[in-house]
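USER:
Make up one protein:

ASSISTANT:
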Amino acid sequence: MSEKKVIQQGIIGCLVAGLAAGSLPAIASAATATANTTINATVESTISMSSSGTVTLNITPVSGGAQTSASDTVTVSTNNATGYKLTLKDADTTLTLANGLNTIAASSNTMSGATTLANNTWGFAVASATPGVASNTFDASYTVFSNQASHASKWAGITSSDQQIKSTTSTASSDTTTVWYSAKADTTKPSGTYSDIVVYTATTNP
């Protein structure tokens, strides 16, 4: 037997003996560690609103006064989970419907004390049966009428500060609110178009 074969056999013998005796070095297992990350996607609240833009009240006056009504539609959409509130106010501190120096005064009635319109005044109303409507003493419903000498419907006057007319508690898609307007005038008022601007504000709830 050659010297090379003897050496190989010797090495193999040692390995076999080592395996049998368990004397070979052990192979260590891999170490591991874990960590968690939370992913938060925050969806912010949005809100949009539109109105009819113009409300026209055509009045043919008589000596004792004639009253006409018409409505505006306010439409609100929001993804806010707790809903929104809707307010209205006059665009400035001059609350009259004006035609040059000629005016029709805002009613002195309030939402909590709504009543019929006095002659040569104007006002607004939101039917008390409207879902989410703010506390008021308005009628349960309203209809369009023209040139009535006397009408029992109840109205409140516009103010220069926000008056809340509605509040909701959930998201809304094209949620509509009908806001009614009325004016009463007699023949002491010169002919012409008497105008004022009302501002609606829709605000998301906290």
About this structure: DSSP finds one helix and nine strands in the chain. Helices lie at 3-21.
